[in-house]
């Protein structure tokens, strides 16, 4: 059978991996490069993700895929430290002692936080789907914990729409992120970058006969009695991994979409570390970015011959044409970096960078099949209540399984 996959991110590539041994698969990707949110820049002799990435020990489907791609040997488990930038000061917040010393939280606040962290993994998150994170935190942990701890975190992830986010997202994120020792959180990274995972899947699926077509956007989609026509070409089956808004705009079925947020992420190659050795700094002070992610305080800078930082911000609507200038200039001023110390900079903007996990989100999740068309992606069940590489690999494999059963 002839199958068309729309979108060459992790969902589309994982589905192609499972479908191409059995069927004739074409994969269409709008961009010239593959990988979607997991694509990378080539800087001199190395690759670096255009959006910061790490994985977790519980990412079973992703780890299995890395193994099949012969990359398990390159997977490293490193330590991710955290901090908070508040009142013009950068506070380390990794160890219990550092959290105790953080002046914006009292001893009682810290104790309540510790209890929540301990029980988060066992809480039925789906019961929290209709409760705003803000309400949950202020009721159970107090206003100060919200303002000093969770509000900056939600601000770094959801920007101006943070108040709409559900407690289900917050609690599940705490559960995912509580695998920490005294020196920090245990996080995975593929030595030399996740681009190798994308390249490896592309190699495997191509050898299985899949036709990969980068630089080929979906322009028209029409239903006909044998299946669907994509850009005029007939297919027995179509799997779309595009945001549902994009799919409907090109003639696909109108499936109520989940709300999305955009991300603007600036990557800078710089002369020295300006984050005091901390990997992830949440901005409590208002800035044009919600977090500074110092990649080379996670992966050693010696691998790159320079330091790499991301300035991460999320937006709804438009990011503003001057976003790059605002981010860079603010970062230089606040973190004491001169323009001469910047080796290079890149800005990645994705309007569909992640679902906005608003209250009631779970009821918006679409099934894998709608009006004779298959859909999977960041909006699918495995990516609730947090989107991830793991969720997209699982969504791709699960929908492929459904297609395989349907086509036989
Ligand atoms: C800032 C950021 C940080 C992240 N950090 C992490 C992390 O640390 N750990 C983790 O596990 N996950 C992380 N993620 C999430 C992870 O990257 C995603 O969940 C995953 O890569 C999404 O894959 P996808 O295929 O579902 O979607 P996408 O990657 O969005 O793929 C969809 C593809 O469809 C293509 N497309 C769109 N329109 C068309 C069209 N008209 N025609 C053809 N193609 C089209 C797009 O170009 C894209 O390639 C992060 C994401 C972001 C944005």
Structural commentary:
- The protein has 408 residues and is an alpha+beta fold.
- Among the domains are: 2-53 and 194-257 and 365-407, FAD/NAD(P)-binding domain; 95-182, protoporphyrinogen ix oxidase, domain 3, CATH 1.10.3110.
- The protein is built from 11 helices and 21 strands.
- It has helices at residues 10-19, 60-68, 96-101, 107-119, 133-140, 143-158, 167-176, 195-207, 244-249, 323-335, 389-407; strands at 2-6, 24-28, 40-43, 46-49, 75-80, 82-86, 89-92, 180-181, 184-190, 211-213, 221-224, 227-230, 233-235, 237-240, 260-270, 280-283, 291-294, 307-315, 342-355, 369-370, 373-375.
- Helix 5 (133-140) runs antiparallel to helix 6.
- The model has no long low-confidence stretch (mean pLDDT 94).
- Residues 6-12, 28-31, 36-38, 51-55, 217-218, 241-242, 246, 263, 265, 350, 352-354, 377-378, 387-392 line the site of flavin-adenine dinucleotide.
């Amino acid at each position: 059978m002839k199958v068309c996959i729309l979108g060459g991110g992790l969902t589309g590539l994982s589905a192609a991996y499972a479908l191409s041994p059995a069927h004739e698969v074409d994969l269409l990707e709008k961009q010239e490069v593959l990988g979607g949110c997991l694509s990378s820049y080539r800087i001199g002799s190395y690759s670096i993700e255009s959006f910061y990435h790490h994985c977790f020990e519980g990412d079973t489907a992703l780890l299995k895929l890395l193994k099949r791609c012969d990359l398990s040997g390159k997977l490293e488990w490193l330590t991710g430290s955290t901090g908070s930038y508040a009142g013009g000061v950068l506070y380390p917040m990794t160890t219990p002692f550092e959290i105790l010393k953080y002046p914006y939280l009292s001893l009682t606040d810290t104790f309540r936080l510790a209890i929540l962290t301990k029980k988060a993994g066992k809480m039925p998150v789906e019961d929290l789907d209709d409760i705003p994170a803000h309400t949950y935190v202020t009721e159970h942990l107090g206003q100060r914990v919200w303002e000093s701890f969770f509000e900056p975190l939600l601000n770094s992830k959801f920007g101006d729409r943070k108040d709409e986010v559900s407690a289900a997202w917050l609690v599940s994120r705490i559960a995912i992120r509580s695998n920490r020792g005294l020196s920090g959180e245990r996080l995975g990274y593929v030595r030399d970058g996740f681009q190798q995972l994308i390249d490896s899947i592309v190699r495997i699926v191509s050898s299985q006969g899949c036709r990969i077509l980068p630089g080929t956007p979906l322009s028209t989609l029409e239903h006909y009695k044998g299946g669907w026509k994509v850009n005029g070409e007939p297919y027995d089956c179509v799997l779309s991994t595009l945001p549902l808004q994009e799919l409907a705009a090109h003639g696909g079925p109108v499936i109520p979409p989940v709300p999305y947020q955009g991300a603007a992420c600036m990557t800078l190659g710089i002369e020295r570390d300006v984050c005091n050795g901390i990997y992830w700094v949440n901005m409590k002070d208002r800035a044009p970015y919600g977090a500074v992610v110092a990649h080379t305080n996670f992966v050693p800078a010696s691998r790159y011959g320079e330091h790499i930082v991301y300035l991460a911000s999320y937006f709804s609507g438009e990011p503003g044409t001057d976003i790059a200038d605002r981010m860079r200039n603010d970062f230089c001023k606040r973190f004491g970096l001169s323009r001469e110390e910047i080796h290079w900079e890149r800005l990645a903007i994705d309007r569909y960078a992640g679902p906005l996990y608003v209250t009631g989100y779970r009821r918006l999740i679409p099934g894998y099949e709608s009006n004779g068309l298959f859909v999977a992606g960041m909006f699918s069940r495995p990516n609730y209540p947090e989107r991830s590489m793991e969720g997209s690999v699982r969504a791709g494999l699960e929908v492929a399984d459904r297609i395989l059963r349907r086509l036989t």
